[in-house]
Amino acid sequence: MTAAPLGPYDGIVMNPPFHGGRRSAAPERGRAFLAAAARALTPRGQLWLVANRHLPYEGALAGLFRHWEETGGDSRYKLLHAREPLTPAPARQRQRQRR
């Protein structure tokens, strides 16, 4: 994912893809989705995501959001919540949406 989706949004819920070709793990693909979500959220926006337990998304969330936490899960999956992106959607996009 190279560009942020349209926005801004108050909240985004996702299960980011992490497979590359031939179903091999490619966590950088999931991290790209996290970064795009952060850019598409309002300054007080929230992100909820479910991910396989072994995927290393915590560091990416720490670099993209003011606050993040694991709110649930089990031995295979984790539920992560992040809020207040460090680089929210540009103000000009927010104004355009309100018209």
Automatic annotation (TrEMBL):
Keywords: Cytoplasm, Methyltransferase, rRNA processing, S-adenosyl-L-methionine, Transferase. It comes from Rubellimicrobium thermophilum DSM 16684. Residues 7-80 form the Methyltransferase small domain. InterPro entries: DNA_methylase_N6_adenine_CS, RsmC/RlmG, SAM-dependent_MTases_sf, Small_mtfrase_dom. PROSITE patterns: N6_MTASE (PS00092). It holds the Pfam family MTS. This is 16S RNA methylase RsmC. Gene3D superfamilies: Vaccinia Virus protein VP39 (3.40.50.150). The lineage of its organism: Bacteria, Pseudomonadati, Pseudomonadota, Alphaproteobacteria, Rhodobacterales. The keyword S-adenosyl-L-methionine applies. GO terms for molecular function: N-methyltransferase activity; nucleic acid binding; S-adenosylmethionine-dependent methyltransferase activity. One of its GO terms (biological process) is rRNA processing. The keyword S-adenosyl-L-methionine applies. Coiled coil: none annotated.
